[in-house]
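Allow me, if you will, to draw on your knowledge of protein folds for a short while. I have a record of one protein: its chain in single-letter code and its fold written as C-alpha cells. I remain grateful for any guidance, and I place the record below:
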Amino acid sequence: MAQFRAKKLDLGCFINIKNIRDHTKRKVFEQHEPERQALRYLIRNTALPQRTRAQAQLQLTQMHCYTRPTQIKNRCIMGGKGRGVMRDFRMARFQFRMNALAGRLPGVKKASW
C-alpha cells in the first residue's frame, strides 16, 4: 500500500516487491501494535458497558489490514521466497545451504559424524 510505504527503505537485503511489501507490513504493524492491544483489552473487559466494547470492536475492525499480526510472513532476505525459511537466519533452505558451504555464516559448518 503506497500510503504506508517509506520514502527510503532501510532494507539490508535483495530488494523485490515481496520483500518491500513485507517490510512495509512489519513497520505498520510495529507502529499500530499498542493501539491494537488497547482496543483488544477494551473488547475483552467485561466490566465495561456493552456500548464501549462495541465501539472498540468497530474501531478494531476498521483498522487497516497491515496492522494485523497475521499479515506478517517470514521471507528469505536473499531471494524473497516465502516457503522453507529458517527463522534464525531469515534465509530459505537453499540460500542457507549455499551460504553455509561458502563460509559466509559465522558459527555454521557442515555436520559430519
